[in-house]
Structures are given as structure tokens and as C-alpha cells.
């Protein structure tokens, strides 16, 4: 019950942020250089036709009226028309979002699988070689920018060793058929379509971009896991558990790890947001048809509706992400549940 | 013919290797404890009371170098392996600051249950009623409801009772209580101490009560050992405390520093000087630098031990 209450309360407290985000994207669109009316009217426009288009677009209305008009559009899921793709921005984004989500989640999964055991292991043997390895990885992960790792990987594994597929998107449609879209995540959709070949190919395409992205996430997760586990293992309650004769495994994996879950969870939320940002570069390197690449193209092409839609969607995504982290946090720690 | 003691410690010494040198935390500790006996260990903060109890419990970290001619418990030698078998079962311990000593994110009832289940193959349901019974036994009101509480929802005194319930869940023969009432208010202190004494009497359980409060030890214990800087300087029947019959200059200072000894607050005597640095070389008597009756040969080993009576031992060359 307290969980549900927390959830409702957190959703309630997210409403102002959503409103703020909408306001910012609205102002952003007005503040961008250039006159959309002139843009739509084309090169051969007269002042009269520009004015006509301006009133058609509602741009001659007071700002407050325009803002409510914008809210109305959003309520109908209308994010405007992309000038570069010629399609509705919303359908562009929905089309491309799963590619980015799949990449980010895979990267995160990779980072978790490596970083959490490494952090735990390092914490149980401070000063040992595992601890040093952990520290080395943390330093390296923080030192190299993702696009550099990505390009190095492409150079080594595709160009030199030829063990990785061509870094061109999610699935080569020359050799494989795209599965019918169910979740939009190829790893799932290929399996649903009963096409293990395509699954393998899609997975192969994912490996390099996901690892380049994941390496970047590994460092903060391993660092926080190690620190949180060290703190938990040195705590009074773990000493109590030892004094009560509880088993080593229970102390390490149940008592200490559950107590360390809260800081780990918080850093995961942060890392996830980083990853969504870092996606932009990785998607460029691997010709990944995600929203990061879409946004870059939109900025280059002065496609304002697309940029606005992208910013709005990312902001909403962050808000949802924070909600999810909060929810997990209150499951992990009763003190968070009663905290507000 | 008296029964053999429950716990025997002969010549226990403990060093910590640290970056700034070797800390000689304990030296030549001799101690015996009989079944059902309550022994107080008294000394100011830093005198080695906690590390001594960790040494008995096998809870020392890796930097600790422990040596002893003999440590035996219930007729068995205590070593890393045997003590691991006995922890929580034969030997149990409660700590200072009960709020942090409990797992903050697990219901207190479940924490007791975890200990029960660990040491006896109980179905969860039986374990739950046993946990509630344990809570009832430490006189927690409404134990069915408190079973579901988290430590942060309980007062310090309540948390200490939960700790006691947990430590006693498997009916140990020895309980080590490391400053169990420090940080609790005076009334709660008395409640917790009465509880420990009553349960010890009921179950014929031995208790090592660690405290820096000589008066408290005198009141609740059968015997009192006074520690200073890693030495046990005096062991005496607790009755001697109330009669101001302790002999060692440090023990006498401790007595003068208890509120019971001096009616007026101004009379409370502070102990002059501070504990010596336990790194580097130390004189045989580690109290020497603070002592008003010290003479130069107090620095010479060995630290003498003389029996005032069979149950009263003082380690001082010149005390009356
Ligand atoms: N892990 C450790 N490493 C180095 N020195 C320690 C360690 N634990 C305790 N000590 C030292 O041992 C001495 C006794 O400490 P402790 O047993 O905690 O005292 P008390 O419980 O009587 O207040 C202190 O001087 C302390 O600094
Ligand atoms: Mg202590």
C-alpha cells in the first residue's frame, strides 16, 4: 500500500516538471532564429503572402493564445511536421525510439553484468588484484570518450579482424527480412517472428555499439557498487550479522547487497540518462536508425519541429526514468517510502 | 570440587598492524568466567574492551594479530573455525548504538527470524511465532505489531531490546554486551540492564558486560575487571566496588569519577592524563605516566600480579 501511495505522489510531483518542459520547448521554438512563416512561404514570397501564412499558422496571435494552441496540439499528439522527412514528427520519433531503447538497454545490461560482480568482488578484497583491476577499468572508462572507443572497435573488429558485421544499422535488409513490428525491439521481434537467423544477425549488429556505449556506463556503476558494498560490509549491522552467526553468503549477497542497492540504483538512473545522451554519437558511428541520429540530422537541417519534438520526448523520458528509479528506490529501502 | 570455568583466557595478546606502526591493543590478558556469572569489564574509551570481546567472538579484521596460550569455551578450544560454529548459538553479542546495529531495511521480526532459521531448521511459520515469542520475552509491548516494524520506527531502547531478543534467540550460554546502554537515557538504561540480568538469571547464562561506568558494573555484576590501555589491572568481586575497596590507582580514580562516589557534582574527579599511545615501546605498567604513586621501576617488566584474596587480583607494584 505505501508503495502505491508513493507512486501516486511521485506522479503528482512530476506534473510541474512536465508543464515546465512543455513551456521550455514552446519558448525554444519561438526563440530559435528564423521566421517559420517566411520559411513556409518559400523563396518567392511577398510580404503579403508571408503575413497570410503567419495568420494561418496563428503566429500573429498573442503568445498566451499561441501557448494554449500548442497545448491543444500536444493533447492531440500533434508535434508538427518534420520538414526533412516530410512526416509527422511524432510518427518519426515513435518509429525510431525502439532502436535507441534497444541499444541503450543492451549497453546497460552489459555494463551491469560486468560492473556489479566486479564491484562486489573488489569490495570483498580491498587491495587485491581484483580491486586494482576494478580501479583501472573505472579510470579507463572515464578517460576515453565513447565515440573514440566506438571508432577503435570498428577499426579493430570490423576493418582489421573482420569478425564484426558492417557497422550499418540494426539489420542488413539485403540478407534478412525485417520482422513485423511488435515491440520495435529487434531482439524480441525476430524471436516472435520465429526467425533465429535474423535474431543472430540483429544481435551481432548490436554487440559493438552496445559495448562501446556500455564501457562508458561501466565505470560509474563499478565505482559506486564497490564503494556502497565496502560501506555496507563495514557497517554495524553486518558486524551484528556476523556476531549472530549468519552465513558469509547471506551477509554478502542479501544483507550488504540489498543495503547497497539504493546508491547503485541512483547511479543507474544517472547512467541511463548519460547513455541516452551518448547515444547521439554512437548512433552516428554505427549508422543506427535511432532518435539520436534523427536529432543530429534535424539540427543540421534546421528542422525545428523535429528538434522541438525530440527535446520534448527526451525530457519526458527523463521524467519517467526518475519515476521508475524512485519507485525502485522505495521498494529497496523502507526509509525512502516513508520519507515524504 | 568446583565446576571448570565456562571461558578461560590465558595470556591473550593482540596487535594491529597499521601504516603508522603496530598498535599493541591487548597484552597478557588472563580471564576466567563461570557458568551463569556476570562479569563486568570496565575502562575508559580506548582501553581495549571492544577488541577483547571481538577477539573472543572471532570478529576481528585481518589486520589483527591475535596470540594466546589458551582460549577455551565450554571445554573446547576457541579458534576461528570452532567460534564460527558457535556464534549466534553458544556465544552471542550485542552492541552499543543499537539503531545502527540492526539492518535498517529489514523488519526487526524478520531479522530475529533469520537468526533462528540459520541455527535451527524451522519452517517459516514456526520461526515467525518464535520470533514474536523472542520479542515478548524482552518485554516489548505488542510484539505481533512490532514484528513488522523497521529499526527507524523504534526508539533506541526498543532497538536494544530487539538486539537482545536476537542475541538470545538461540539460547546462548554466554552473552557479551558491549556498552549496551551507552546512548540510552537513564530510565531506559535501567530497564535494559534489568532485562539482561533477569534473563541471565533465568537461563543461567553467563554475561560479559562491557561498560565505562564502574558504578553500573558494580551494581549488575558478580565480578568486575578493570582495563587500562590493553591491560587488565584489577579483578575483584563486584561487592568491593561499592565498598570502595578497589586497590589499583586507576581503579580508584575510576571510582572517584563515578557520580555515586561523590555527592556533589564538583567532586567528580576527572582522571588525569590520557591513555598512552599504544604504538611504539611502552613501559611494563601502562598507567605509569598518569599514576601518582609511580616509581621508576614501574617501567620494568614483568608487570607484577598480586592476589589480595583468591578472587581479588591487582597488577601494581606499589599499591597498598
Ligand atoms: N582495526 C583496528 N586497527 C588498529 N587499531 C585498532 C583497531 N581496532 C581497535 N584499535 C585500537 O585498539 C584500542 C582499543 O580499542 P577499543 O577496543 O575499541 O576500545 P574500547 O572499546 O575500550 O573503547 C584503541 O587504541 C584502538 O585505536
Ligand atoms: Mg568500545
TrEMBL record, chain A:
<keyword id="KW-0813">Transport</keyword>
<keyword id="KW-0472">Membrane</keyword>
<dbReference type="Pfam" id="PF00528">
    <property type="entry name" value="BPD_transp_1"/>
</dbReference>
<keyword id="KW-1133">Transmembrane helix</keyword>
<dbReference type="InterPro" id="IPR045621">
    <property type="entry name" value="BPD_transp_1_N"/>
</dbReference>
<dbReference type="GO" id="GO:0071916">
    <property type="term" value="F:dipeptide transmembrane transporter activity"/>
</dbReference>
<dbReference type="GO" id="GO:0005886">
    <property type="term" value="C:plasma membrane"/>
</dbReference>
<feature type="domain" description="ABC transmembrane type-1">
    <location>
        <begin position="97"/>
        <end position="329"/>
    </location>
</feature>
<dbReference type="InterPro" id="IPR000515">
    <property type="entry name" value="MetI-like"/>
</dbReference>
<comment type="similarity">
    <text>Belongs to the binding-protein-dependent transport system permease family.</text>
</comment>
<feature type="transmembrane region" description="Helical">
    <location>
        <begin position="251"/>
        <end position="276"/>
    </location>
</feature>
<feature type="transmembrane region" description="Helical">
    <location>
        <begin position="310"/>
        <end position="329"/>
    </location>
</feature>
<feature type="transmembrane region" description="Helical">
    <location>
        <begin position="202"/>
        <end position="222"/>
    </location>
</feature>
<protein>
    <submittedName>
        <fullName>Peptide ABC transporter permease</fullName>
    </submittedName>
</protein>
<dbReference type="Pfam" id="PF19300">
    <property type="entry name" value="BPD_transp_1_N"/>
</dbReference>
<keyword id="KW-0812">Transmembrane</keyword>
<feature type="transmembrane region" description="Helical">
    <location>
        <begin position="136"/>
        <end position="158"/>
    </location>
</feature>
<keyword id="KW-1003">Cell membrane</keyword>
<feature type="transmembrane region" description="Helical">
    <location>
        <begin position="12"/>
        <end position="32"/>
    </location>
</feature>
<dbReference type="InterPro" id="IPR035906">
    <property type="entry name" value="MetI-like_sf"/>
</dbReference>
<feature type="transmembrane region" description="Helical">
    <location>
        <begin position="103"/>
        <end position="124"/>
    </location>
</feature>
UniProtKB/TrEMBL annotation, chain B:
<comment type="similarity">
    <text>Belongs to the ABC transporter superfamily.</text>
</comment>
<dbReference type="GO" id="GO:0015833">
    <property type="term" value="P:peptide transport"/>
</dbReference>
<keyword id="KW-0547">Nucleotide-binding</keyword>
<dbReference type="GO" id="GO:0005886">
    <property type="term" value="C:plasma membrane"/>
</dbReference>
<dbReference type="InterPro" id="IPR050388">
    <property type="entry name" value="ABC_Ni/Peptide_Import"/>
</dbReference>
<keyword id="KW-0813">Transport</keyword>
<dbReference type="Pfam" id="PF00005">
    <property type="entry name" value="ABC_tran"/>
</dbReference>
<dbReference type="InterPro" id="IPR003593">
    <property type="entry name" value="AAA+_ATPase"/>
</dbReference>
<dbReference type="GO" id="GO:0016887">
    <property type="term" value="F:ATP hydrolysis activity"/>
</dbReference>
<keyword id="KW-0472">Membrane</keyword>
<keyword id="KW-0067">ATP-binding</keyword>
<dbReference type="InterPro" id="IPR017871">
    <property type="entry name" value="ABC_transporter-like_CS"/>
</dbReference>
<dbReference type="GO" id="GO:0005524">
    <property type="term" value="F:ATP binding"/>
</dbReference>
<dbReference type="GO" id="GO:0055085">
    <property type="term" value="P:transmembrane transport"/>
</dbReference>
<dbReference type="InterPro" id="IPR003439">
    <property type="entry name" value="ABC_transporter-like_ATP-bd"/>
</dbReference>
<feature type="domain" description="ABC transporter">
    <location>
        <begin position="7"/>
        <end position="254"/>
    </location>
</feature>
<keyword id="KW-1003">Cell membrane</keyword>
<protein>
    <submittedName>
        <fullName>Peptide ABC transporter</fullName>
    </submittedName>
</protein>
<dbReference type="Pfam" id="PF08352">
    <property type="entry name" value="oligo_HPY"/>
</dbReference>
<dbReference type="InterPro" id="IPR013563">
    <property type="entry name" value="Oligopep_ABC_C"/>
</dbReference>
<dbReference type="InterPro" id="IPR027417">
    <property type="entry name" value="P-loop_NTPase"/>
</dbReference>
